[in-house]
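As the work plan foresaw, our protein records have gained a C-alpha cell line. A representative record is set out beneath this paragraph:
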Amino acid sequence: MHKHLTCACGHMIHADSDDEMVRKAQEHMKMAHGKTITRDDVLKMAKEAKH
C-alpha cells in the first residue's frame, strides 16, 4: 500500500510500506530538522495514496 506524508516544511515522503515510511520520515526529521519522531507518530501522519 503506497502512502504519503507531507512534513510541515513541505517535503513529501512516498513509501510502499510502513517500515519504509518510518525510515524515510525519521531520516528526514533528523537531517532537515535535527529532531526525532516516533514510529507511531509517523504512522499517524502518513496517509494512504489515492492514486
Summary: The radius of gyration is 10 Å.
